[in-house]
## 1
Amino acid sequence: MKRIPWPQTISPAAYSIQGGVVHSTTYDDPYFASAGAMNEKEYVYIKGNHLGRRFRESRKITILELGFGLGLNFLSTLDAHAATGGDCVLDYVAFEKHPFEKSDLRKCLRESIGAHARVDDVIAKLPPLLSGFHRVMIYPKVMLTLIYGDAAEYIKELEASVDVFFLDGFSPKKNRVMWTPRLFASFRRLAATGATFSTYSSASDVRRGMIHAGFDVGLPKGFGSKRNMLTGTFRGENDSKANGSIPADLTIVGGGIAGCSLALRAAELGMKVRIIESGQSAMGRGSSNPLPLVRPVISLDFGPRGQFSWYAYLSAMSFYRRLSLSQPIGWHESAGLQIPSSDVEWNKMREAVDILALQDDVLKCLDDDSDSFSKLNIKHSRALMIGQVGQLRQCQSFILRLLEGSSVEVLTGKTVSKLAMDSGRLGIRQDSSPFQVDGELVLCNPQDIKRLLPDTDLKLQSIRGQSTQVVGHPTSFDFPICGDGYIAQSEDGGVWSSGTFDVGCDSIECRDSDDLKNMARVNNVLKFDGKSPSLTARQAWAGIRYATHDRMPHAGRIRGGVHVLTGFGSRGFTWAPLTAEIVLSDILGLSCPVERSLKKRISPLRF
Ligand SMILES: Cc1cc2nc3c(=O)[nH]c(=O)nc-3n(C[C@H](O)[C@H](O)[C@H](O)COP(=O)(O)OP(=O)(O)OC[C@H]3O[C@@H](n4cnc5c(N)ncnc54)[C@H](O)[C@@H]3O)c2cc1C
Ligand SMILES: C[S@@+](CC[C@H](N)C(=O)[O-])C[C@H]1O[C@@H](n2cnc3c(N)ncnc32)[C@H](O)[C@@H]1O
């Protein structure tokens, strides 16, 4: 499959509001019927697909909407879902070529539907206007995957087992591309057995297209004064996960950030989860890192790795933000700086910022001309300002507390030494005793994974790194500063300077020579305004990064019920939440949060 170039320019929605009805000035068509926005959506889409009953009877429902627009269908679906207790997992996927800017969306919704209890929550969680896939967790059991781009182009990249199709892409006369037989034909691949669809349109072309795509189509009464609308049921049988066969149990080997983020998320989704960890507690080893950052790296890499890194960064920001709302996890957000090492790199960064075309509060270039630059107390004269960088301060104890408060069972001091298939059931050998695995198994243990999967070439490489807490600098600075490694203010004084880079080294003993390198970074970055610093190393931490040859992670199924989630290199805290979601979606039959082609690029079977 040919990869869709990324990023693509996204033109936001252009609109006018006339008598409370929002009109697209691009398509010259209204977003909803003038007879009542929410009433129309509820009649055509919620009742048209019997969603109330289906939410009560199903463990998961995947909805695919063509045209997210103002999110009215989504809001109506949230209302219907909540009215049934919200226990069914709601996996809502929507294409949108012209997303609204958040402020415009707020205004349009206020003028068209007035107050709605969930609007602020939904808008706050919407992604920036960056093309491609964005998985947003609205509530633990409700996820929204927004795909910013042309549905006709992106549909081939969607992997999902769709239970309900909402066709809402402006009138077929005004916007033919959202109603073509070719687009509908892809529903044959996506539709789950028994899938339904509805649309306010009763056009005969649409009816014929949906019949051709494999649906039995009916012509019930339309909304308000409209004579008819279309509904239908998929005639085919697709070999997707039937609701009853969704696995309920998950065993995870390795309790680092990969294992823990997977466990917490799986427990939220109602799975029975067990972590087996060889250390004395979870969040040891690589994940005992004293101050990891969650940040994007701005470069001209717009291939799969650059694309994946952006998705993962945005996803991690919302993951930790959400966790921190329920309990403190040492999460701290601020702006951050990325400093170029040369003119060439600076030019590349500027070009990347132009191509990404994100709002200034997400990403902007600062140089000598910027008023704000002089206040930054750094020796450099140009930098990128990243609007949101996350710091995880002492997150280990907080994540352990989250695990304790969850239903996840954590078995520590137990090493998994072998995987075996016994009469078709998966077993593991834990120390010397055999152990039957119920449900699915995910390996999140980079140290030892080669031994458990001798036939899979994961091409993992060890890269030692040391971080040092440096004290004695007289300058205060507000933001983490990244470039060659990073420095970030530490809560208990001084800064953490990270990290050194020793390819092929497995030692985690701290070294004085590495402290000196880390102190040099502080000296090279911060301005001391005539005061002479006397930098000293207060403490140090060393860990091993496990990186793959192509610097992409491993996330996916190896065989049967065995999955791998590892190989994060220097990005474990940033990449774990999205990759965990990818693995979990595969296990639970939910839509894939990234492009099919990208999923292949992180498959543990790719080498
Ligand atoms: C200097 C440095 C700076 C870094 N900075 C950042 C940063 O700013 N941002 C960021 O996102 N990332 C950063 N990282 C990377 C990040 O720390 C790692 O990618 C991440 O911790 C890896 O997590 P993990 O869960 O994959 O592995 P680990 O945390 O190593 O967890 C694996 C667990 O599996 C257990 N285990 C192994 N074998 C077995 C077995 N057979 N049976 C049972 N249990 C087993 C281990 O005991 C271990 O607890 C940095 C890394 C270094 C070294
Ligand atoms: C009628 S509005 C959708 C209303 C929306 N369902 C709601 O509930 O608010 C149609 C939407 O389809 C989007 N759209 C039009 N052509 C598209 C395309 N080719 N790909 C993706 N979205 C498209 C428009 O930008 C618009 O937001």
## 2
Amino acid sequence: MAHVEPAAVSPAALADRLAHLRDVLAPQIEVVRENEPLAPYTTFKIGGPADLFVEAHSADELALAVTTAREHDVPLFLLGLGANILVGDKGFRGVVIRNRAAHVETRGDGRLWAESGTVVWERLIEESVTAGLSGLEHYAGIPSSVGGALWQNLHFLSPDRSRTMFIEEVVESAELLMEDGSRQTVDRDWFAFGYDYSTLHDRPEVIVLAATFALEPLSRETLRQRIEANLQWRGERHPPLDTEPSAGSIFKKIDGVGAGRLADWCGLKGTRIGGAEVTQRHANILINRDSATARDVRHLIGYVQETVEREQGYRLSTEIGMIGDFGDLGDLPARGWENEDGFTDGVPPGGHPEAHASAERR
Ligand SMILES: Cc1cc2nc3c(=O)[nH]c(=O)nc-3n(C[C@H](O)[C@H](O)[C@H](O)COP(=O)(O)OP(=O)(O)OC[C@H]3O[C@@H](n4cnc5c(N)ncnc54)[C@H](O)[C@@H]3O)c2cc1C
């Protein structure tokens, strides 16, 4: 993840560095706030405050905020639309930079150039429809920034539903801010895209500033039909984000079986811990039913993992990023949950007494 943790510093030293960073950025960038709650900036609507919160409204501002934060040696997390993360209840110690750089240009020969904070649905897709260009309409209805889409290789089914389509198919090049602060334009191959993967996972200090998409001409009518079909497909299967906040699919896909199907076979739909619930619509989606905490979600994730492993023999691993400080999670085992990049993985051995005690099936 675009998430950098310098060597550990004392809270007092970190506070000092953040105060300096605020003083340097405040005259140059419009939104620089302290103790800003992160929940409103995520689709899960969960998460405590960031020590420092900065909004970048152009690629130049984004590069400035990131390089200045690095110079001050403070932990940094780059936030797109917050659609693929769970933020801890205690928030984030360091600076969160929210990417709102959203300039888009049509560049001839079917090319669309967009800054990395551009929202794919609806802004970028609408731009492609206006230009009569195909390749992005498959991702209608999915909450994502351009940067998040490249980070994860955004994907959805083809119009005839016969295969999975990936955003890599239309990525031509991207402008990156590298680890050493230089800007480089790279082509699609640099990303080594895979399923839910790009090189960005392994190079957490590299930031996407902008991307160029190479698209094919298609009639606006056909593009609109595809978009409508995709929105309808989602509406029938997925919980609506405005009333049932979520982070989309929680668990990575398991080839040939499906993580959601496994959880469904275990009768987990409707299972609830605190305010978090496995939605009745899709057993791979957890929703914030009622003022859920990140702790509720972590315990529900553990409960689902443990139940599926016990009853079906598969180990589910999470695909969302876990960001910041989760505080005391109670009886969750310390090992088996987090990879070195901060993402959870695997089923904790030994089970979750607390989850068993409080999980209620509906
Ligand atoms: C209701 C719902 C439905 C969904 N359906 C789908 C689906 O059908 N297909 C699918 O593939 N996904 C789906 N998702 C998941 C999500 O939409 C994607 O993962 C999306 O790409 C996340 O983008 P984001 O801008 O929200 O990234 P964030 O969640 O903000 O960030 C995710 C990661 O990307 C990194 N990142 C963000 N911007 C940049 C950048 N400019 N440079 C470098 N790193 C960056 C962040 O640091 C973080 O590590 C769904 C999610 C929801 C909530």
